[in-house]
Amino acid sequence: MIKLMFPAFVCVKEFLDKDSEQYPNMTREYFKILKDEMDNMRKLDPTGRNVSNSGGWQSNDGIESNPIFVKAYRTIKRVVANELVPALGLEKNSFNVTMHNSWGNMNFNGNFNKPHLHNGCFYSGVMYIRADGDEGNLVFVDTNHKVAGVFPPNPMMKESEIYSPRTGDLYLFPSGLMHMVEPNLTNKTRYSISFNLEVNGGKRRETIQNEHLEYEVNDKGDCF
């Protein structure tokens, strides 16, 4: 038997690709409207702020209150309520999802985000408003203690997980999961919104398939 201990549950949605039928309100036209609104926000506040970003532009908190972004955040909360939290073992409609804070990001040529965590919340996330996948990868880093040895690199024991985000992609991850954004080596501007959220209350689901994340191993080494 193989048991997964302390895994990080990351939820990935592709609103303009494989998840478009499930979320038809998240259209390419809507993401263009969000991008244009971020341009307007930057005109009003060209300096922005600096937190984990090295260069680029980051808005102050409060973007979730912007009327143009309301539909986006309602959809994000729907994903959290209907998919992420039930997968963590709570019954649907037994808890409340609240947005803690949210902000917008623009990464220009050479800009990146240093490795960082999101303290003071349950889950965090990022949704890409305009991205082609080549403006710098999103990298999640495993910070569990490692033991040096001679065991060769293998696909089941990784030190990082890498994504090349595109417009409409959403990533939800534990706030304590270390992550970073690689430098944008193109002349394009990548737009995204980031956020932290809380889940309050909740009732445990009575039946959870494979609650203990235990798997048997066949003669080929595959877990099932």
Secondary structural class:
alpha+beta
- The total count of strands amounts to 13
The tally of domains stands at: 1
Give the helix tally.
2
**CATH homologous superfamily placement:** q2cbj1_9rhob like domain
What kind of assembly state do the chains in view correspond to? Answer: single chain
Major sheet size, sense and barrel closure: 6 strands, antiparallel
CATH secondary-structure class: Mainly Beta
Brief summary of the model shown:
The chain is an alpha+beta fold. 16% of the residues lie in helices and 30% in strands. The protein contains 2 helices and 13 strands.
Question: What do you see in this structure?
Answer:
The chain has one domain (10-146, 158-199): Jelly Rolls (Sandwich), CATH 2.60.120.620. It contains two helices and 13 strands; from the N terminus they run ββαββαβββββββββ. It has helices spanning 28-44, 70-87, and strands at residues 2-3, 11-14, 53-54, 57-58, 95-107, 112-116, 123-130, 138-141, 160-163, 169-174, 178-181, 190-201, 214-215. The radius of gyration is 19 Å and the shape is globular. The model has no long low-confidence stretch (mean pLDDT 93).
